[in-house]
Write a sequence for this structure.
């Protein structure tokens, strides 16, 4: 006997109705404010004030009054010159005899160093 085949209707996939193109209405542009000339950044006068180092700090950076920024630069030059940064953790500074007198301990964190140095400036 022959099997009767059932007639199957194929359902066509419905297509979504095309959406109407929506146009975005641009808001009216405001008149552009005139741009200010890019002013060069001025350093804070508090950083540029010359401060006198203590006698222990003067042994490293010199006795002449210097701004705080210059004192830190000279300290880093001294640290680099005598290779006083810790080899494993570069943030730490291994103090020699001159720096031990300033820091009060053998190893100092670089962020802690600036805090300690500020106590030696007047």
């Amino acid at each position: 006997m022959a099997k009767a085949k059932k007639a199957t209707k194929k359902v066509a996939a419905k297509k979504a109705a095309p959406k109407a193109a929506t146009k975005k209405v641009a808001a009216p542009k405001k008149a552009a404010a005139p741009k200010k000339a890019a002013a060069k950044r001025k350093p804070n006068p508090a950083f540029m004030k010359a401060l006198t180092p203590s006698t222990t700090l003067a042994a490293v950076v010199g006795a002449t009054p210097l701004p705080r920024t210059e004192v830190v630069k000279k300290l880093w030059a001294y640290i680099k010159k005598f290779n006083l940064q810790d080899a494993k953790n570069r943030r730490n500074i291994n103090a020699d005899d001159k720096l031990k007198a300033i820091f009060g301990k053998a190893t100092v964190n670089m962020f802690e160093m600036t805090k300690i140095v500020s106590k030696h400036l007047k």
The domain at 53-118 is CATH 1.10.245.10 (MDM2). Strands lie at 50-51, 66-67, 92-94, 107-109. The chain has a mean pLDDT of 84. The longest strand covers residues 92-94.
